[in-house]
Specification:
The chain has 209 residues and is of the alpha/beta class. It has 2 domains: 100 residues, Rossmann fold (3-Layer(aba) Sandwich), CATH 3.40.50; 56 residues. It is built from 7 helices and 7 strands, in the order E-H-E-E-E-H-E-E-E-H-H-H-H-H. A hairpin with a 2-residue loop joins strand 6 and strand 7.
Length: 209
């Protein structure tokens, strides 16, 4: 099974979650954190860690069991109960446009959650396609170990530098060269890198065309 890595924007999206146990408790906070518009949870009981979201406007708990023939009209559908038969039946009633996550059946799922690490605006996702979660953890630890301790501050600078360069009247090729310079160790590790950036821009602006 081939998979295409994507970054999904959740703003304006709606999700239905069937089940509110440990699996839902792992994934719902991720959806909340990334700004999903609305989550409706269908379950007779709610995992204790999810109770904190009950007071939020975009979180709604529909207490009770879901009928096997229920159809949901949300953008995303999460089937996270311990009832495989219910999952398979609900899947048959999914909307054509829905992206579905079936916790106990990767073959039916349109997506799944890879192992991730976040450092500021940097997001690294890792998957072995289910071959070995243990090995994936080992590789991710190696990646985290090799990340710079200043990576969050570096990315903040690079973001400011990008905006500053794009605001300039320089042509595209010159802008690209400046941004490449900004990401180089000589600039990135310079304690006066913002001043260096302005010097580079001024020098490029004053160069004859």
């Amino acid at each position: 099974m081939s998979l295409l890595p994507l970054m999904l924007k959740l703003g304006g999206k709606r999700a239905a979650v069937v089940g509110a146990g440990a699996v839902a408790a792992r994934h719902i906070p991720k959806l909340i954190e990334e700004g999903i518009k609305e989550i409706v949870v269908y379950a007779p009981t709610l995992h204790p860690s999810l109770e904190v979201y009950v007071s939020e406007e975009r979180f709604r708990w529909e207490k009770g069991n879901v009928q096997p023939t229920t159809s949901f009209d949300t953008d995303l559908l999460f089937l996270t109960t311990n009832d495989s038969l219910l999952h398979k039946t609900l899947y048959q009633y999914k909307k054509p446009y829905q992206l579905v996550y079936v916790a106990d059946n990767p073959a039916l799922s349109d997506f799944y959650f890879p192992m991730t690490v976040k450092k500021g605006s940097l997001t690294i996702a890792l998957s072995t396609g289910g071959s070995s979660p243990t090995y994936a953890k080992k590789v991710m630890k190696q990646i985290e170990y090799n990340l710079s301790e200043t990576i969050e501050e570096d990315l903040l600078f690079l973001n400011k530098a990008r905006k500053r360069v794009l605001e300039s009247e320089l042509n595209g090729s010159v802008r690209k060269k400046i941004l490449q310079q900004c990401a180089s160790p000589s600039v990135l590790q310079n304690p006066k890198r913002e001043q260096v950036l302005e010097q580079i821009i001024n020098k490029s602006t004053n160069q004859p065309t």
